[in-house]
Automatic annotation (TrEMBL):
<feature type="transmembrane region" description="Helical">
    <location>
        <begin position="437"/>
        <end position="454"/>
    </location>
</feature>
<dbReference type="Pfam" id="PF03062">
    <property type="entry name" value="MBOAT"/>
</dbReference>
<dbReference type="InterPro" id="IPR014371">
    <property type="entry name" value="Oat_ACAT_DAG_ARE"/>
</dbReference>
<comment type="similarity">
    <text>Belongs to the membrane-bound acyltransferase family. Sterol o-acyltransferase subfamily.</text>
</comment>
<feature type="region of interest" description="Disordered">
    <location>
        <begin position="1"/>
        <end position="46"/>
    </location>
</feature>
<feature type="transmembrane region" description="Helical">
    <location>
        <begin position="335"/>
        <end position="361"/>
    </location>
</feature>
<keyword id="KW-0012">Acyltransferase</keyword>
<keyword id="KW-1133">Transmembrane helix</keyword>
<feature type="transmembrane region" description="Helical">
    <location>
        <begin position="293"/>
        <end position="315"/>
    </location>
</feature>
<feature type="transmembrane region" description="Helical">
    <location>
        <begin position="404"/>
        <end position="425"/>
    </location>
</feature>
<comment type="pathway">
    <text>Lipid metabolism.</text>
</comment>
<feature type="compositionally biased region" description="Basic and acidic residues">
    <location>
        <begin position="33"/>
        <end position="46"/>
    </location>
</feature>
<dbReference type="InterPro" id="IPR004299">
    <property type="entry name" value="MBOAT_fam"/>
</dbReference>
<comment type="function">
    <text>Sterol O-acyltransferase that catalyzes the formation of stery esters.</text>
</comment>
<dbReference type="GO" id="GO:0004144">
    <property type="term" value="F:diacylglycerol O-acyltransferase activity"/>
</dbReference>
<keyword id="KW-0472">Membrane</keyword>
<keyword id="KW-0812">Transmembrane</keyword>
């Protein structure tokens, strides 16, 4: 029977001045090196005979085959794709410069002083409606506290009739409060939309004004809905209101949250959903703020340059194809525009959701920084829409979808209503600043509904092929919500909505064509088939 002999470690000098321990283990009296050499000889032959050693000594699979035991790394292919993208885009940059020269100039960025004046007036007046919402809630809170006190006194007297009467009377006032909030929010949005459409000509500046108005409008709605629920819980609570509200709210439970300081924080917070209390970080990291600011500034410049130098010539060259209804030419323009628009869209996503919102959150010490998920890996559109823009997703789920389902509306109907509402907001954010209500942005959102139903089965497929197919359909049909930057001419402002491969570049071309047909300085295009009776 073979015996195993284990030798103790021996110290041997290493190269240089260092020394290291070498542990030599002998098995059956043979060192490991000798065993390894013997195995190699048995497998391939002796190194002495160079022409006869065995090359094919076992069954093996190709590393790219599906049955390979160990998957190889594809980092090299990723590097190749990066090199090809850089080289191809460099070629396009050279071709663009040879054809058009340098189109980026600061002289074309000047805007009408009236546009600036109307923009700042609207920007400063819009938060007044937040103040109106605070005054409505302050009055409602005082009224609720007085009625709750009267109800408690009735309970102490064991006057059940008076208690129920006070409760019914209190709930009857909720309609008055809801009407006041609805009038305040609607008036704000109507005034902002009217001013933007008729008195701010530049579409870039108009986009920022309309976007700010819509954001404040959504915040006013969330403030009203949330306080309505907390007021309802406050009135109904026979014990502690904390039993039905999140523990996070306890330090500032209703009605202690109805303060200007609390509302002012919500106004600036990077969220559309109101809470009395948010998770907060302990301190501000000024180096983090500086990095996010530099990212946002650099990416904004990149988007501006890309729109001015590359997108605008493509859009200008698409006007004749649309006027003549040249479908092949339109498709070629759409596909050509998709490359630069995708670059701008991805840059805009990073600038807004990663750089700007994180910067704002750090300044306000806002703790929840999950502004997006890994939407780029989505295998279906449903997961994309729930992860790409989480501030809007949270608002829609909390204040639109969930309340409808809670009232017995079928989930599928609630989904359709949610997308219709989102489509109206999209059209408001695109059609109003461009002074052309075409319905293209609305249709783009509505068409997401059948695409979601189409890709839902793909998400349930097992294996990589199902996810791959779903991810490809996602990239072909996804719709972005990015707002771009200013440029040398108002034409370039129309690229503030960046798009992917099919639907989004087509929408950009449609709105650009409508703008040129209505406001173009030279050679205004004619609408095809007599559509769009444009006022000159």
């Amino acid at each position: 029977m073979a015996t195993k002999k284990v030798q103790t470690p021996t110290r041997r000098p290493a190269s240089g001045h260092a020394h290291e321990d070498h542990l030599t283990i002998s098995i059956n009296g043979s060192p490991p090196e000798r065993l390894h050499q013997q195995e190699k000889t048995n497998r391939q032959g002796s190194d002495k005979y160079k022409h006869s050693f065995a090359v094919h000594f076992q069954s093996r699979t190709s590393c790219l085959s599906s049955d390979t035991p160990v998957l190889p790394s594809y980092v090299g292919f990723r590097n190749l794709v990066g090199v090809v993208l850089v080289a191809s885009n460099l070629r396009l940059m050279i071709e663009n410069f040879k054809k058009y020269g340098l189109l980026v100039t600061l002289s074309g960025s000047r805007m009408d002083p009236n546009d600036w004046r109307n923009f700042w007036i609207l920007y400063l007046l819009t938060p007044v409606f937040l103040l109106n919402a605070y005054m409505i809630e302050a009055a409602a809170a005082r009224y609720a506290k007085s009625k709750v006190a009267e109800r408690k006194r009735a309970e102490e007297r064991h006057d059940i009739v008076e208690r129920e009467r006070q409760k019914r009377y209190l709930f009857s006032t909720w309609r008055v409060i809801a009407i006041a909030h609805g009038f305040n929010a609607t008036l704000m949005l109507v005034i902002a939309t009217y001013v933007v459409y008729y008195y701010i000509h530049n579409p870039g500046l108009a986009s920022f004004a309309e976007l700010h108005a819509v954001i404040v409008w959504l915040k006013v709605c969330s403030y009203a809905f949330t306080n309505r629920d907390m007021r309802h819980a406050y009135v109904n609570a026979d014990s502690d209101i904390g039993a039905v509200m999140p523990a996070l709210y306890k330090p500032c439970a209703y009605p202690k949250n109805i303060t200007l300081k609390n509302l002012s924080y919500f106004w600036w917070a990077p969220t559309l959903v109101y809470q009395p209390v948010y998770p907060r970080t302990e301190r501000r990291r000024w180096d983090f703020i500086a990095k996010r600011f530099c990212e946002f500034f650099i990416l904004s410049i990149v988007i501006w340059l890309a729109c001015a130098q590359y997108a605008v010539p493509l859009l200008q060259n698409s006007l004749d194809a649309i006027s003549d209804l040249n479908l092949v030419g339109i498709l070629e323009r759409v596909l050509k525009l998709s490359t630069i628009s995708l670059v701008c869209w991805l840059a805009g996503f990073f600038a807004l959701f990663q750089s700007f919102l994180n910067l704002l959150a750090e300044v306000l010490r806002f703790g929840d920084r999950e502004f997006y998920g890994d939407w780029w890996n989505s295998s279906d559109l449903r997961s994309y829409w729930t992860s790409w823009n989480k501030p809007v997703t949270h608002f829609m789920k909390r204040h639109v979808y969930a309340p409808m389902v809670g009232r017995g509306v079928p989930p599928i109907v609630a989904q359709i209503v949610t997308f219709l509402f989102s489509g109206l907001l999209h059209e408001l954010l695109v059609g109003v600043p461009t002074h052309n209500i075409l319905g293209v942005a609305f249709a783009g959102m509505v068409l997401q509904i059948p695409l979601i139903w189409l890709t839902d089965p793909l998400a349930r497929l097992q294996g990589a092929n199902g996810k791959l197919a779903g991810n490809l359909i996602f990239w072909l049909s996804v719709s972005g919500q990015y707002k771009g930057a200013t440029s040398r001419e108002s034409d370039e402002m129309l690229m503030r909505r960046q798009f992917c491969f099919l639907g989004q570049p087509f929408a950009a071309i449609c709105y650009f064509f409508a703008w040129q047909a209505k406001f173009g300085a030279h050679n205004r295009p004619e609408w095809p088939l007599g559509l769009g009776d444009v006022k000159r």
